[in-house]
Amino acid sequence: MLFFPITLVAGIVLYTGSKAFVLAKVSERIDRHKKKVVSAKTKKADQTLAIASMSLSLAATGIVLRIPLLGAASIPIILYIFTPTFKNAWQKLYAKRRINDQVLTATRVTVCVVMGYNLIAALDAVLLAVSDRHCIRQQEKFHRSLQEACTNTLQLADKYSTDLQQTLLAASAIQQHGERHGEQMAPWMLAAFVVTLPMIGVNRAAAFLTTTFGAHLRKLGPYTSQQLSLQALEQGILITQASSLEQAMQVDTLVFSEQLFHDAITRSQAMNVMHDLRQRYVQDNTQGSQPLSLQIALADKTILQLAWLADLGMDGYIRTSPDQPLADALLQLQAEGRTVCYVDIDTRHDAARPTLSLTFAAHPLTNGKMASPDIILFGNGLQPLPQVFDLAASFKAKQHFNLIAPTGVDLIDISTTLLLDFGLIYSVLFTYSGLLLGMANSHNLKQDYQDQNTAAAITPTVASNCESGV
Known about the structure:
Blueprint: H1 3-33, H2 40-64, H3 68-81, H4 83-95, H5 101-115, H6 118-153, H7 158-168, H8 173-200, H9 202-205, H10 217-234, E1 237-239, H11 244-248, E2 253-257, H12 264-284, E3 293-299, H13 306-311, E4 316-320, H14 326-335, E5 340-345, E6 355-361, E7 375-378, H15 385-419, H16 424-442, E8 461-466
Parallel strand pairs: 2-3, 2-5, 3-4, 6-8
Antiparallel strand pairs: 1-7, 5-8, 6-7
């Protein structure tokens, strides 16, 4: 009776884990081919995985050969692997007087060691090492690609690249929600373990200690952001803020500076780009908000030609003057319930090729000035602009999957624990299947981007977003 479900879950973990392992190996071979220097973090992650595999071998051999000393020999290795977890749990429990998933994990490992479940603890350590190793390798790959894009393509300072690495690790709104939900559920899961312990036994009750209820997003959130940012870099898009794509989904008004269209190539792209923007807005807009509005900002002395405005695919225009500066005009749109993205010329970066930048910030107008750009588009003129919203939709879908899938796994785990006697090994396999499934899903990002075969040269451009409630 237990064979089929445990085999099924083990198969899921094996599939997702092997897929992640293959992807890591491919990246490893590419690094060797390019003679990349392996960082200290990556070396340590590889060593940790090797040590964890040794503990699993010792525990399994001890059970097969019925030599308890071999199983006991794996305990120090297991405790070494989980040392950071115990440290974080101690800080959370005693310093902050709170319970989170790290406390549950530390309790689970302690129960396994005390009860002699060495094989389960060793398996737990191996799966933890595999997920950590894959996250670290992904982070290193992302950092290299980001540094190359900033220094070689955009000719930016190394400090700018380092700052971007930090801002992109910031938690998105969905990640913060998942972590909060995990912290709220952790005390209840610990209480459920204590209450059910006398009734169903430690092997089944400990399954409550494997649940996370969204806390997996601590790993999956940055992992998905980095994976999507890597694909964006391949498309000529540099994302500088973790929250940029979330805020891009809220934009319903784009205001373009007239200076953008002084270039003939940009004008020729405008109609198709505006058409694509409208199509994507209709597809992605499921909340029934206001229709997309495309405006052009004109200086007071500019002579407007209606035919030229129609050729650009604009819905209307905004007049600016010394009496009504651009910042006031955008704030007026905000007051009308619009979420505005302003697109303007940027000459701050000495890029090797023409760049275009977008800013999706909550409050970009500081002292009447736009904030630094959150997204930089380099090359191909206006063409990559619709792809930003494709990336935003894909990011939103992936993060929702990262929240729902592990939580669904936890609910199934609890149900089967209460109704059927599958045991703790089943729960450990099940909880890591949710994490590895999220990692595998992050690699299947949306590929419906436009062709970018024509490399157009335009003046460096910046887009700034003025956020308002809709």
